[in-house]
Amino acid sequence: MSKISPEILLTFIQLDRSRKTPLYIQLYEEIKKGVFEGMLRHGDRMPSTRSLAAEFSISRNCVLLAFEQLRLEGFLTSAVGAGTYVSEQLNELKPPGKKKMPAVPLVRVKKTAVNCNDFPLHTKFVLDYIGQEATLPFQPSIPSFADFPFQVWARLAASVYKDIHRLHLGYDSAQGYLPLREALTDYLRMNRSIHCSADQIIIVNGSSQALHLAAELLLKKDELCWMEDPGYLRAKSAIARFGAKICPVPVGKSGMDLDYAMRRFPAAKLAYVTPSHQYPLGETMPLIERIKLLKWASDHQMWVIEDDYESEFRYVKRPIPALKGLDTFGRVIYVGTFNKTLFPALRIGYMVLPSAEMATEFTIAKAVIDRQSPVIDQAILTKFILEGHFSRHLRRMRLIYKKAQEDLVVLLQKHLAAEVRISVADAGMHLIIWLLKKYDPLEILRKTRERGVMLYAIDELSVAFRHEGAFFLGFTGFKQEMMEKAVLILKEVLSEEKPIE
């Protein structure tokens, strides 16, 4: 299968209609600037003129004029049926030198003798079980294993093992396999608008390890951390484990309520956010709120952990750029994972730190825990990315998951229209239902789980702010027939329960 170059997101382009400069010239200048600043590199495939015109709400003629001028100057090249690319000749252009930013001091954990009883693992914030998870509807964040290209993965694995002697089979860098980190720099630049170098990236065993490293290194005992409420349980567990204080912040239509957090917890040293697709309510933090958060973090020397989970699975329009891509202050730590996009057993995630120096500090902490992540799996994943299989897989899964989401909505409307209100997000691997009548949620959860349906209440993820009668249902990884049986079980359970007056 031939490699298909993915289109790059052009979210760094800014067009100002209040200027007298024609829009096609602004577009031309912005693309050219992107080349010189390193956001566009030789070989990058440009979006089509129609999609760009729609994205920026300008006429297609504006895009055509800008592209034509860039082709004349040698910045772009195109061929019929092959698309438009950044010219190969541009590999000799060097980005202009950037002004060196002052190093941001890293908060270090005070070295003391620790009694394990002083910092118990808060089981309140840990999932119900730590054993093997059953793949049952409506378990959230379960990839569709039936649609994963295992034959391709097996072929790549065989090629890695065939040349295994070429790998360093001793202890490798605790920071992670260098070719994988280099592949990630291109992936993040093109898909998440994050401009970083390989020495800012650390390979970890998933987002959980990343969160524990951040909590250990960035927070002292009793320091405050903003947490979305409801929010990710394992993030709460990491913060609580190292003795910091969880500051629950309500979630609204714009994601975390920043005004509430700033007013109630102004001394916080860390904020944990899921801005692209809030977990679990699915809200997206708009640009003005993102800028407000970044400015506050800079002014108050606060770190921000951006957990960009499931951001690849956006079903309406193009993916939203990451908060990290806007961070000019060096305060955002970006966390990503392949465990949801590929399969959980892979156990490969990554962190992007604000600087190489800070990445070194985190690498030391990771080395103390488990020395390094498995090199062979990283080598297989690197081939999977570089040969274009990862991009193809994501494109295919977006279509499959969108269809699964639509199927579940139809089933809920068919069987439970009088019982639930459905809330569908533009992205992610689950949806929300709100019961129209008041029931005992513990009984609903107990009875559905006893019958093989893994229903989860939003309040299971809450500390202070309740969402009565709200449940989230995963729809990926389950065939329509299985989901229909699960919906009918939920209907049966609701029919057995008496509403609370």
Give your account of this protein's structure.
The protein is α/β, with parallel strands linked by helices and 501 residues long. It contains 14 helices and 14 strands. An eight-stranded mixed sheet has the order 3-10-9-8-7-4-5-6, sandwiched between helices. A four-stranded antiparallel sheet has the order 11-12-14-13, covered by helices on one side. α1 packs across α3, α4 packs across α11 and α6 packs parallel to α7.
Instruction: Return the CATH architecture of the largest domain.
Output: 3-Layer(aba) Sandwich
Output the CATH class name of the largest domain: Alpha Beta
CATH topology of the largest domain: Aspartate Aminotransferase, domain 2
How much strand? 5-15%
User: Which stretches are low in confidence, meaning pLDDT under 50 for 5 or more residues running?
Assistant: 92-123
Average pLDDT figure: 86
Secondary structure class reads: alpha/beta
Radius of gyration: 24 Å
**CATH homologous superfamily name of the largest domain?**
Type I PLP-dependent aspartate aminotransferase-like (Major domain)
From the spread of the alpha carbons, the general shape counts as: globular
Biggest β-sheet description? 8 strands, mixed
If strands are numbered along the chain, what order do they take across the biggest sheet?
3-10-9-8-7-4-5-6
Distinct helical segment count? 14
